[in-house]
Amino acid sequence: MKAAFIRETGPASNITYGDLPTPEPAAGQVLVKVGAVAVNPIDTYIRAGGVKMNIPLPFVIGCDLAGTVERVGPNVKRFKPGDRVWGSNQGLFGRQGSFADYAAVDEGWLYPTPAGVSDEQAAAVALVGITAHLGLHRASLKAGETLFVNGGTGGVGSMVVQMAKALGARVATVGGSDEKVKQCSQMGADAAWNYNTEDVDAKLKEFAPQGVNVWWETLREANFDRSVGFLAPRGRMVLMAGRDARPPFPVGPFYTRDATLIGFAMFNASQDEQRAAVEDINLWLADGKLKPRIDRVLPLGEAAAAHQLQQDNTLDKKGTLAGKIVLKP
After folding, report:
1. Using CA atoms, how far apart are residues 229 and 109, in angstroms rounded to an integer?
2. Of the residues 142, 174, 206, 328, which has the maximum number of CB atoms within 10 A of its CB?
3. What is the pLDDT of residues 109-161, one digit of tens each?
4. Residue 105: exposed, middle, or buried by beta-carbon count in 10 A (0-12, 13-18, 19+)?
5. 108 backbone dihedrals φ, ψ, rounded to 5°
6. Nearest Cα to Cα of residue 213 among 264, 133, 141, 165
7. What CATH number should be reported for the domain holding residue 33?
């Protein structure tokens, strides 16, 4: 089979697109004929060696996938050949990744693809959708509450906007251009502002005079003096970025609000926790309430270029990406 893989960690140019043996599904595993995969920031960190993982070499890159069950190994109970499936959490903790013609995946990391949802859509929603749902669940977001997400057109941010609206919250967000602000509004945001041209702080105070109930932070280097100042009493702040960040934190203003700080990484969640999130995700996908933002679709052979593009936008803030990069074998 064709696959995108590395023989050692390093720059995106280390990615080879070539032939590897087709994997055999072991007990409890499903062999998926891959229809689409998606790129995530964590993929680039693992490939670069920035996040230390026990990876087999050669290592097929990638977490997300969607496709069709080709065959199943012994003791598989939830799927059969011909079923359409999607999933994430590949390429982690010794598991091979998803960027290949075929992937052998533990059935616990796979979910049925709803009718009418394409492989491209399912792959694009995988890691970012589960991440957003886990964070909103941890934050106990309720209907009628106000949520602010820093960056509403990013992979996770766009999921947070749509899921928060599906849960009945008032949602405010920002984008770096008028076009991105328009996209946020199209996804259902009640308020969206251009942080390069508008006074976001003044607008947010007007939108949420009593404060923000849930502040979802996507920035690697957050300004906590600013964000804590916007929290309502008993507000919750969700952190999901900035592995090496050490910004100052205003302890006094935070604890006197009875506020809660929530940090989490999606891949720490168990199969059961992630499957519970997927139940909602699949319902929202089927109902059209959740639509992943896909910036571009590329051939799998362009995996190295896709990784470089993701890295340029994640670390170097190039601003040339608005949504997910999806690749097709």
Report:
1. 39
2. 174
3. 999 999 999 999 999 999 999 999 999 999 999 999 999 999 898 889 999 99
4. buried
5. -70, -15
6. 141
7. 3.90.180.10
